[in-house]
Amino acid sequence: MNPTKLKGLLLIALMAVSGLAGCLGTEDESDDSDEVATTSGTDAGYTYASDVENHRALMKDLCDIKSAASSDGGYNFAEAKNIYMNGKNAEKSDGTFRTLAGFAAADGKKHNYDTFYNQSGSVDAHIMAAMDGTGDFAGASDTVRYQGIAKLTANMGMVAYTIHELNSAIAKADAGNVDNDSGAPHNWDEGWAFFHGPEDDWSCSPAYTMKKRAADYGTETNGVSNALTATTNAMVSGLAALQAQDSAGYTAATNTVVKNVIITYSQATLKYASKMDSNDSGAKYQVEGYAFWKTIEAYAAPYTDNACYNMGTHTMGWIGSSNASACDAYIWTNASQDPNGTNDTCYNTVTHSVFVGANESVCDAFTSTYFYENYGATSLNNIFDLTDATQLGTSYDVTAWLQPVWDHYGITAAEIGTYA
Known about the structure:
With 420 residues, this protein is mainly alpha-helical. The protein folds into two domains: 9-303, no CATH class; 306-373, no CATH class. The protein has 17 helices and nine strands. The protein has helices spanning 15-18, 53-56, 58-69, 77-86, 100-104, 113-117, 122-132, 142-174, 184-195, 206-217, 226-243, 247-274, 282-300, 360-363, 375-383, 399-409, 413-416; strands at 42-43, 46-47, 220-221, 224-225, 307-310, 315-318, 330-333, 345-348, 371-372. It has a three-stranded antiparallel beta sheet with strand order 6-5-9, with no helix packed on it. A hairpin with a 2-residue loop joins strand 1 (42-43) and strand 2. Residues 1-26 and 28-39 have low confidence and may be disordered.
């Protein structure tokens, strides 16, 4: 058994705190000079401080892409790609269109995806694979490609754009630029335009994914997603904090948005991994799980924990962020520390954790030879491997793989809920 390792994780830094310094792409601030500085109004309780009408119109592009790529649209992937690449609804004053591809493919965006995947335009690369039936989608059915196009554009794409805008707002506010029309509030407004957008089209947004998953997991109050409520409130308070140059306030708001994104897409990952045993729809559920996992992978994978494979039980012992040497640190000892007691516990002297249910021979079966870095993320990528049909036909419970992520972000079991 050869350990599988994710690459580039040491480069990851928590978006919500760092802001990730970098150059802005060409689809954002540099394109806004032709917009009139007016207030766009309100979407779902968030009142914009600047004009983001053109950005809001991109949500309709998402809906049109979904329609074209669907079975009702004749699986017209060429048209879906055309809208994605060239735009349709977000026409600017010079007659050109703002495009979803322009954001996804741009260099230097203030999100973690390109760093994590070690690839410029990584979000676009994932989406284009579904559009073209290449890469992870090579040989995929029309149904799988449709789900990939619909879910990746609306979730991975728009969450990435949102993260970029929140980080851009942080960078501008930290530099003292809090002008509503050209400074931090404008970027923050764009973040909400990308995350929720117009009420007429919000069914194509990440915010709507929050609504659906909360209904699945019972994490709603009076029919409203707790995650969406927390995110909306954070966006509202974050805008006020930016305008007041309250660094602690807008940093806390950003952290809240990230946390609730992790909650929602963890719920989605859990749901679709558990449904992959379906005889009729296993491949459909696999690609849905794939798209939702890819939405948070860059922010979750570094915290899925390392593990040691036990040759006696053929199970994993979790060792957190410890290195391979921790696999050699399991000892058979007396948990009560009574000098007259009997050894009865498999204890790790590095992680200070217990491998439950072991006997002495099992405890001795750990070795650094079988060390797995970020084992949870590796395992998730294996079951969501769209080119591996052997993963289908099994219902997976991936709770243990995601639990360290929830611990990192301070997410409770109640916030994840229970799938019904």
